[in-house]
Structures are given as C-alpha cells and as structure tokens.
Design brief:
Elements (H helix, E strand, L loop, with lengths): L12 E3 L2 H5 L25 E2 L67 E3 L10 E3 L36 H6 L8 E2 L1 E6 L8 E6 L7 E9 L4 E10 L7 E2 L1 H4 L5 E6 L7 E5 L6 E5 L7 E4 L4 E6 L7 E5 L4 E4 L7 E4 L2 E8 L10 E9 L2 E8 L22 E3 L2 E8 L2 E8 L5 E2 L8 E8 L6 E6 L5 E7 L6 E12 L5 E3 L1 E3 L7 E7 L2 E7 L7 E2 L20 E4 L13 E3 L7 E8 L8 E5 L7 E4 L3 E6 L4 E6 L7 E5 L7 E4 L6 E7 L7 E7 L7 E6 L13 E5 L7 E2 L2 E8 L14 E6 L7 E3 L3 E3 L5 E3 L17 E4 L3 E3 L10 H4 L2 E4 L6 E7 L5 E3 L3 E10 L6 E5 L5 E4 L9 E4 L4 E11 L2 E12 L4 E5 L3 E3 L4 E8 L7 E6 L2 E8 L3 E4 L5 E11 L2 E12 L3 E7 L11 H19 L6 E6 L5 E6 ...
Parallel strand pairs: 5-43, 58-64, 66-72
Antiparallel strand pairs: 1-3, 2-7, 4-7, 6-46, 7-8, 8-9, 9-10, 11-12, 12-13, 13-14, 15-16, 16-17, 17-18, 19-20, 20-21, 22-23, 23-24, 24-25, 26-27, 27-28, 28-29, 29-30, 31-32, 32-33, 33-34, 35-37, 36-37, 37-38, 38-39, 40-41, 41-42, 42-43, 44-45, 45-46, 47-49, 48-49, 49-50, 51-55, 52-53, 54-56, ...
Length: about 1200
Amino acid sequence: MEKELIFSPKWHLAFCFLILMMFQAAEAEITCRSCQSGNKWRARELMLQFDTSESATGLKREVVGQGDGAGRSASAESVRFPCAAGSVECAPAPAEHTEPRRNIDAKNKNVESVKMKVSNVKTSQESSPGLTFSRKRARRSSDDGEEITSPAQSQDPGEGARRVPRWSGEDRRGAGTPRHDELKVDSTTFALTGDSSHNQAMVHWSGQNSSVILMLTKLFDFNLNSVTESSLWRSTDYGATYQKLNEKVGAKTILSYLYVSPNNKRKIMLLTDPEVESSLLISSDEGATYQKYRLNFYILSLLFHPEQEDWILAYSHDQKLYSSVEFGRRWQVVHERVAPNRFYWSKMGLDKEPGLIHLETSISEGQALYVTCKLQNCTDANKGKPFPGYIDPNSLVVQDEYVFVQVSAAGRPIYYVSAKRDVFTPMKLPKYTLPKDLHVISTDENRVVAAVQEWNQNETYNLYVSDTSGVYYTLALENVVSSMGYEGNVMVDLYEVAGIKGMFLANRKMDSQVKTHITYNRGRDWSLLRAPSKDLRGNSINCELPYCSLHLHLHVSANPYTSGNIASRDSAPGIIVASGTIGAELTSTNVSVYVTSDAGNTWRQIFDEEYAVLYLDQGGALVAIKHTPLPIRHLWLSFDEGQQWKKYSFTNTPLFVDGVLGEPGEETLIMTIFGHVSHRSEWQLVKIDFRSIFNRRCKEEDYQTWHLHNQGKSCLMGVKRIYRKLKPSSRCVMGKTYSVSMTSGPCDCTEADFECDYGYERRTDGKCTPAFWFHPSSMSRSCTTGMTFLNSTGYRKVVSNNCTSGVSVEYTSRRQQCPIQAPKGLHLVTSEGTLSATLGTNVTFLVFLEEGDGARTSITLDFGDGHALTYSNVSSIEDGIKHVYKAVGIYRVTATGENILGSETVMLYLHVTCQLEHIHLSAPFVAVKNKELNLTAVLLPSQVGTVTYIWWIGNNTEQPVITLEGSVACTFSREGINAVTVQVSAGNIILQDRKAIAVHEYFRSHLLAFSSNLDDHNPDVAEWRQDVSRVIKKSLIQATGVREDQILVTILPGLPTAAEFFLLPDKQLTEGKAEKSSAHLDQLSEVLLSALNQNLVQFTLRPGVQVTVYAAHLSAAPLVDTSENHSGSAMLMLLSIVVVGLAVFVIYKFKRIYETSCTCEILHRTPHIHRLNSGLDYHSSCVMDIF
C-alpha cells in the first residue's frame, strides 16, 4: 500500500486556474498569501484518511505526516495537504461544495482557505499545533488466496499488486524482544479500541502549557460521500491515555469537523454531519463538556476574529455570510451572494471599527462589488463602497495594510491597490509585462511581493517587488518554477527562511534546467548554492560552480511539527534542513537530506535517503524519522546541528507510521506518532517524551556567538548581525524561557544595498538605467506647484535595509521643487472599464492625470448630452464623477485638463443602451411577384442603442444580409411561400422573429371589419391572430363556396380588430393570362363582397360570443332601400355610386399593395436600406441618435 508524505507549501502559491483559462486570457485573479493576522485559521490538526475498500482500484491514498516522500518534485508528482475537511482551509467532503483556500502568515499568521488560488508564506507557530494525515487499509492474502499488501504500497488503478515488503533484519529480530543495549526514548502506546474501521482522524493539541489533546476519528463512506460514524477522544496527559467522549456529545451524533478558537484554545467547536443533522457542539473547557446548538444553514468555512475570541464569520453553502458574537451560539445573516473566501475582518489601526467586514459580493456574471459592512448592522445605509465601480469576480484581497482588486477592460486586466485604506491606484508593473496572471505573495514590512506570469510564459513566473505604496514594481527574479498541484493548484517554488530577514530560496528555470538560488537581501542579488565538499561517507564531491551546485526541493509542510522537504525555525536561525540533489539541475531521483548551520553558506549531507526532520527544544536538537513504506521502530536524534546522529527505539513493535504531532511551541519536547501495527488494527498513538534524554538545563556557558554572513560578506541588509546560539557540544535543555538573541551594527551603504527603481533596469555592469519605454520626468506627475517631490536616481533602498552613510546620498532619491508643467497624459475611463452604460443608471467617470500640477489643473467633463461640470483640481474628483443619461444614444464624453501652461483633452464614446424586450417583423402577408417591398423590424422599446440586424430572406439561408437599420427592401421572383427571418442583436441580447410571405403574380385584396364584441376578446398576440384567421377563412369558404386554395386571410395587429383577405385566381381557368385572371378575380370579389354585405359570414368565438364579419368601409345596411319614400331612379343612382366607390376602393387597394409589397429574391446582393416614415406605428423603426 503506497504512502505519501503530503505537504502544504510555505511560501507557495496554490490556486486554481479553472476560471481563468475558461475566459479571456486577460481574466486573471489576485490572490493573497495571508490576509491578516488571525484571519482564516484552524488548529493544526492531524487528519488521517484511508480507504477500507478491498478493491485494488480504489481511491488514491494520501498520508500527511510520515510516508515515502512522494510528491517531493515540483512536477506532476506535486503533493497536496488534505487539510481538515470543513475547516477554513478545506471544503467539506462533498465535491459540490466550495473548496476553501489556505494562507499561512507569520507572527500568528492565519491559515486561510481559498478555492481559487493561494499564496503560502511563513508557517504559523503560535496557533495550536496539529496535523492532518490519511491512511489506507490494504488487501490481504494468505495461503488460502488472500493477498497481503503493505499500507505504503497501495496501487493506483491499473497498478499490479505488490507483495508486502519484508522488515529489515534488525526490526524483524527486535519485534517484541528489544535489545537491552539499544538506546530508547520514553514512550507510551495507546490504542483507540473500537475505531479500527474509521478511515479519517483529526487531532488537535490544545495549546502551549496544556496537556490536552483532542482526536476525532471518522468513517467516511466514499460511495455516499459522507461521514457515517465518528468517535471523539480526549487526553489530559500529553497523549499517554485517551478517554472516549461519544456519550458526552451524544451516542448517535456524527461529528464532521473540529475547530478551535485561535485566541482562546480552551474554546472548542465541533460540527455535526449535515447529512444527519446540522448542529454545533461548543466547549469552553478544552473539550471536557459540550453544549449543542442547532443550525439552520450548512457551514462551509469559518473565519475567526484576530482579537475577539467569540467573533466568528461563517460561510454557508448558499453563498450567505453569517456572523456570531457568541462563539457560534447565535447567528445572524450579514450578507447574501458573497463570493467564497472573499471576506475579511478589519485590521486594528487601519480600519475605523473592529467589527468592520470587508467582502466581495456577486452582482451578475462577470461583475462583483467590494463593500464594507458592520458586523451587527449590515444595511444598505451602512455599507461602504471603497472602490468606485464593479470589480472582477474573485479578485478582492485584503492583506495587512493593502487591498487589491482587479478590473478587466478591453480584454486586459487592470490591477488596483489601496495602501492604508487610501484611494485605489492602478498597480504599475513594467510597461510591457502584460500579465496573464498575478498573485500577491507577501505584504510583509510595507512592501508587496507579487508573482506574475507574463504574456510569453507558460510554466514559470517572474517575481516583482514594490515600493511602500504597493504601486510601483521592479523585477526581482525571472522564471521561477511553478507546477500544478494535486487539485489543479499552482505551486511557485519560493521559500522564505525563518529566523533571518531578507533570506529566500527559489527554484529558477534556466536553459530548461531547474536550479536553486539563494538571496540574503530580499531578492536584490541571487546566487547558486555551494554543494558539500564531502558526502555522507566522507568521500570528496567534485562539484564546481556554476556548472554544478546543490539544488533543493522547496515544498514545505503546512504543520511546523511535520517536516516537509525543507524546514527552518525562527528559534534556530541559520539551521535549514532540506531534501535535494547535487548536479547540474534539480531532479527527483537520488534525493538526499542536507543541513546547513550557517544560513546556507555550507551544507552537509546527513542522510542518503529521505527523512522527516523535526526541531526539538527550540532547535537545540533535531529528530529524524525515515520516510519508508516499511513498519519502523526507530528514530534518530542529533544534538549538534546534524553533525552526528544516534538511533533510538520508540516502540517495541514496528509501526506503520502515518503522521507525527508535536507539542505546541518552539520548545517541543513531547511528540505523538500516529500509526498502526497491521492493516486492520486500531490506531496506535505513541507518546514520546524526550525530556529524559537531556542531562540538564542550559547555562550561559553553553551558548556561543555566530556571525551571519554570505560567503564571508558580513554586511547583509545594511547591518552586521550576531546571533546567540547553543554550542554543538552542549547537550542541555534550553526550555521555554529561551529567546533568540541578536545584536547588530550598522554598515556603510554600498551599491548592493539598492535595487533598481520603477522604470529602470539593471545592465550587465550592475548599473540601473531607464527602460526604453520610461520617461523619468513622469515620476513627478503628482506634484503640486510650490511643493517638493523625490526625484529618483534610478535606485531605491531595499526594504528593511538599515545601512547608513556610504553611497546613500548618491543613490537616494533627491527632493526637488515640483516643476510647473502643462497637463499631460490625461485619461478618461468609466469605473467599470466599459464603453457602455444602461439607460437611467449612474455612470461613474474616472479622470487620471499622469503629468502636471494636479492641484492647479482644472478638469472639465462634458457628458455629451448638454450637461458639463468643471472641477478646480484633479484631487477633488478622486472618487469619480457620476452622471445619469436619460436617452439612448452614443455620447461623446470629453475631459479637458487645463492650467496656466496649457491644456489637454481626451474623449470617450459612450454607448447608452436599454434592454431590448421584443421585436416584431412587419411584412405583407401577400406580395406581388417581381415587385420591391419593404421589410421592417420594429423594436420594443423603439430605442435600445446600437443594433445589428441579420436577415435571412427567401431561399437564401446561408448568406444573411447584415444591416444597421431596421428596414430592408427586397424582391421575390418566384411564386409560392417564402420565409423571412430577422435577428436583432443589441448588446448581449439577440431576439428573432419570422414571417411567411405568399408571393403571387395576380390577386385581389379586401379589408374586413368585425362586430365590436370581438375587440373584447382580442389579446393582440400573434398566435391569437393566426387562429382567428383560420376561423374567418373557414367561414368565408362556407358562405361562398370559394375553394380553399383561392383565399388567404390575415388578422392585422392592433385594435380595433381588422383583417384582410386575398383572392387568388384559378390558374387552370385563367391559363396564367392577365385578362382572364383579372376577370376571374372580379367574379370572386363580387361573390365574397355580396356574402359579407348580407351578413352571411359569421363565426362563434366562444359560447355566447357570435362575431359577424363585414367588408370594411361599406355600410352594414342593405344596399337597396325598399322604402316607399324613394323612387326607383334614386335607388338606382345610389346603387351606382356605391358600386363605383367599391370599384375605386378595390383599384386603390390593389395599387397600394402593388406599390408596397416587397419581393425577397435578392436581385442585388446589397439591399436598399432606408428609413420608414413613422406614420404607422408598427412600421416605425428605431433611429439611433449620435450626439
């Protein structure tokens, strides 16, 4: 069964590229390393996971803690730290839930969890320790056919079965019968009886000066994707014995996760499995007793306040953010539609209120807002909007004194930063960096370190460092290696050495080879690592720089007591233990373990296999446990910084080691090893007490001084540093009262204490000169006449560098009077970075001035709609200028900056639109063959902005006609039914309408009217008109006997209800001749008009609603009046006038159709496009005005 030591990196970026790559390349996301002290935190717990499946093709197994070291490579073998499910770092087990991020900071820096991307920096050592690891059950075999597989040799699907490895001769002989002459450590073993089926465990050591350990074991069903059993164990004697607490929390209660307050380790929170019940169990006495509280939501992650121990934020599965000020006993909703893991507590000294919350809320797809909210009163009136406008989703990062957001404009991301909660300013990277991806790694000591993947990079990142404002960035190191993690996260190989400020290690790709580099001055200078002169056996190593050097794997453990590939401690400055290789490049084969006692100047090989090395007694001793798939019973101890090692037994029976948990604090002297004796045994917890190994307490004479240097250069970061360290020959306990002592003396400044300023690049001779794109004069753009500014010399002192005198005057920026200059580099953008706006909404314009006296430069903004505003200076419009447009159109917005020396104007064309709701294709029901007609698309509302029309006319279905106006002229050359389809595209909305046009060479048409009761039932929708048209046609046929193929009927839109019927000639009778067709149509017209005039055409719309159809413009009364008061001649004259009027009407109607019907054979590929008069509402077009 294969075991892996799974690490979580320390200064590694871990983030998801998922969203990024699915959208435009410009869509990148900012991520943070640690958003503030005490933010997203969890106790370091030990989590074991193993699969009880008997199938050889089971799930991949993971072990955090002890393993074979798999995952040391930064390639596809990159490993993952399976953090406590449901804690701040991890999503709950169900795959559909959001997976949190993990960020680790220094000085009680938080462990924060994020789905998108994560930058990990200094591992916290003040929060309560713990560990998370997993274990697998294996298949067994024996003579009866059952196969035995070691837990460390589980196969991935498709792997062949492996035989269980045999123990070494020493361990096999010593099993159960230890040798009397071997060294031993004090240890006790406790078995978690009854939990042999449980395949996950979380362990938490309550805190410093506490003997309480809590352990939650669970049976996770991978088929059901939920926890089905759990047990809670508690130890009060440093792990020597444990008590089962299932009865105290409820015998049937199934627990999922464990949380501990970072400010009061006595306060424990347990979360039940929401599949069974959603509840919290809260303890205030280190887990001795619990109270249960029901929840009405499902917790995905928690965020504890950095100072208030009872203040908690909870993120739910439905994107709601809840708050509690009573440690989870009561909850209230803070905000809805909150982006996962984009919520932060306020920071004292920067934010006005301790209960302020920074959060990102989703507005729509692709749009979010950065808002601030009060903890107990998050109403619209109390919300703040620090950034004026929308931001890109999942881009808000609040970290220390900086806030970062991202806004995409014109397909490219713009990154904004706010320092000390001041106004937002675009981050200034070198002009042609053109980042595809950017991640904030660190904000320590008033500067930002960012990893940027540039337009021409795919697998590497460049490191950039900022000035104190976080605005101006310069290159620190190119082509730092990155790799894809287990969950699709990216890992950047950068490691900050603990205990020594300014010291970093990085793996850089050079000519397709990965090499490890070191810096002692925060990235100002980098060099390769010198390889040891001798190997473990004393043989000489021939390795000369720069062709050969030492290379290290820079993955680290998320837990300070479970070693990763590299480890260092604040309490042991200069001591670094790491796995690596010697040669031309870093490899994943022939990996050994190396140690340095002088901060990387010299290295020694201590093991030729991989070991987990942990620090004891504040670094006064080192303990090593072998990474092996075999059961072991020994560990190794060194009291002289790794020069000599002695082997000690910690158990009589060899143990498959799954993980190690150390006592909280740097002075670790008690450890617990978690493992199992066999594949089906209970968990074995071995408590090891190292206190008996040490002879005495350390005295003053046990310490010595050590001078930090870089290959003999003692001035680093502008000072000479002298540390107080334990002598290698002293075997004593430093204890909890020990603290690192360091004295320093200033050094004269040299060129090495300065890095290139923004806009400058270092040449091969080491000098900083302006880049080809940079104009040094532009650095004075924020100047005010009469004030002064710092005129850059091309250099700036490295952050935290404390050198004095020397070349300081020559390299330090010089203060000069601000020059008087005309405005130059005026920029006008909308806050959303778009060129469109919605009618009736606020549009915020932002005006930036690159050069010129901003305080004495007036700004005039003309909105293009007859309104304009003038401001006395640029600073008065830092929050933007808001305006509401009341009409749709394209507006030319102009901004003019002017002072006594000149002016500059910039323009922006803004499209103001409203949403298209409906379109109607206005077209005749019947058209004349070979005669031009007009097709019109009518919009609702009539003016929506810039619109594109796409027409498919007749049989031309492959080549649509595209127009910018809603009317098109066309001609049909063939008789029959022709389809016309029009699509209207307005913004991101596309609507369509379709009509069928009957084309004939000869026809007659007449208008119809109806009894008024039809209007009461006319909903004026197309479907109703079609259905009633069929009913009218049927009624006409029944009343007149006209054949069905000779009559067409259509109801016209609008009220009062009107219709039109068309008569078609019988082609067999007329033989297609005009004279015969005309005569035949006259006969049919007389028949239909007679029936209509005699009220013979009626239909029943619904029971009780009888509708009569009339010929329009004719009296419904009889044509002949039989009254005795009228003479026969008078009646004859009246009849003649009516007949003549009818003839004139028919001729006029035929002429109207003849002239306006349009054919749809595209005789000319470019149709005639014109505007229609607005006389008829349903023929009117939407005209776009340009102002």
